[in-house]
Amino acid sequence: MSRIHYRQLLAVLDGTGEPCVALPLSDGFSLIITQRGGRVFGPFWNEGESLTWINPALASTESFDAFRRAGQWNLGGERLWIAPEIQYNIKDRADFWGSHNVPPQMDPADYSLEPGLSEIILKAEMHLSAHNLSTGTAHLSVDRMIRGDARPHGLPPGVNAAGYRQEIVLREAQPGAPVSQSWLLTQLNPGGQLLIPCESGAVGVRYFGDPAPDALRPRDGAFRISLTGQRQYKMGYAAEAMAGRLGYLNALPDGQAYFLFREYLIHPQGLYAEEVPDQPGVNGHAVHVYNDGGQFGCNGEMEVSAPAHPYSDTSHIMDTFIMQVYRGPLLAIQSIAEEALGLKL
Fold first, then answer.
1. How far apart, in whole angstroms, are the C-alpha atoms of residue 119 and residue 121?
2. pLDDT band at 315 (very low <50, low <70, confident <90, very high)
3. What whole-number distance in Å separates Cα of residue 263 and Cα of residue 261?
4. If you compute the radius of gyration of the chain from its CA atoms, what whole number of angstroms results?
5. DSSP codes, 245-269
6. 74 pLDDT exceeds 90?
7. How many helices (H) and strands (E) does the chain have?
8. Who contacts 26 (Cβ-Cβ below 8 Å, separation ≥6)?
9. Smallest Cα–Cα separation from 52: which of 246, 258, 256?
10. Which phi and psi angles does 228 have, rounded to 5°?
11. Where are the beta strands (DSSP E) in 93-219?
12. CA distance 54 to 50
């Protein structure tokens, strides 16, 4: 499968008048951040292919123009949505897919894109109608700061690495407004293994679809999920069983491999309000996994949520999500993944 490269994406965005900014990272890596949808594309190494999934519609100006005319949202890359999905994207939980709708106020939203000295700032106002869990409208101010981190130290020969973090502040000025949470979704190229360390006795909770057995129960201290992009399902994993880290290990066509390592904070007593569509009251999941079956592109997703906060116009509660990327020989990358996750592969 041909994947989209750094210069190719920049040319398409420029040719269609879509504002974007390139953010250099360490060791030859970089990101491309767009105003449309507030997407973080990449990481790209040495201006090569994206290590996260990009919709093939962005391969040319003609196909991207058709994508925009059709009102599509699924650009790929990494995106911020507002959870719970069952509240903001689903009008009738008894008819999940029939009533599924991504509010345009959420995606593509109306972001401003502000380059800084060492960071990119995205800002938007979102007015989201609530369903199922409550009624009313959430009036949210969304601030996102994306900046590079220092290159990890002590790496084996031949390994390139970089890191970046995204800091998100949601503000809601209306007391008693519907619950809202930061929900960061990273779309992944298929063919690799998603590794989620967990506590003993953890189980996966099916949201929809036909999950593969490796998504239901852990093995040797972790869920080890093969993301194929050929079997649609979504799973949830309880915050109290999570370790605050997960990663995706995949091979590259040139024989090299890469590892995307996500760190996030777990609040075991926090409110993770997302609910299983056909099980009202079943919630508490800080991590979700989506494997596509071709409906939204051949990809998978690792999704992490922050708990709901008591937002106000004076609050400043920041949710921080960290990503590190490693690229190099397979055995070296596997060793890095083992150390980062505390697992034996």
1. 7
2. low
3. 7
4. 19
5. EEEEEEE-TTS-EEEEEEEE---TT
6. yes
7. 4, 18
8. 148, 150, 151, 161, 162, 163
9. 258
10. -105, -25
11. 112-115, 119-129, 137-149, 160-172, 181-188, 193-197, 205-209
12. 7
pLDDT tens-place string over residues 251-300: 999 999 999 999 999 998 899 999 999 999 999 999 999 999 988 889 99
Are the C-beta atoms of 124 and 38 separated by less than 8 Å?
yes
Q: How would DSSP label each residue in 167-198?
A: EEEEEE-STTPPP-EEEEEEEE-SSSEEEEEB
Hey, which bits of the chain come out as E strands? Answer: 20-24, 29-34, 40-45, 78-83, 112-115, 119-129, 137-149, 160-172, 181-188, 193-197, 205-209, 222-226, 233-238, 245-251, 257-264, 285-291, 300-305, 318-328
Structure tokens at 306: 């922050």
DSSP three-state, residue 66: helix
Q: Look up residue 17 and give its two tokens.
A: 């008048």
- Of how many residues is the chain composed? 345
**Phi-psi group of 154: left, alpha or beta (phi > 0 → left; psi -120 to 50 → alpha; rest → beta):** left
The span from the CA of 319 to the CA of 206, in Å, is 26
Q: Which residue has the tokens 């040139």?
A: 254
- Bridge partners, 288 (sequence order): 236, 303
pTM of the predicted model as reported, rounded to 2 decimal places: 0.96
Residue with tokens 């309000």: 273
List the 40-45 sheet strands across, edge first: 20-24, 29-34, 40-45, 78-83, 181-188, 300-305, 285-291, 233-238, 205-209
Can you tell me which residue has the tokens 């008048």? 17
**Whole-number pLDDT of residue 96:** 95
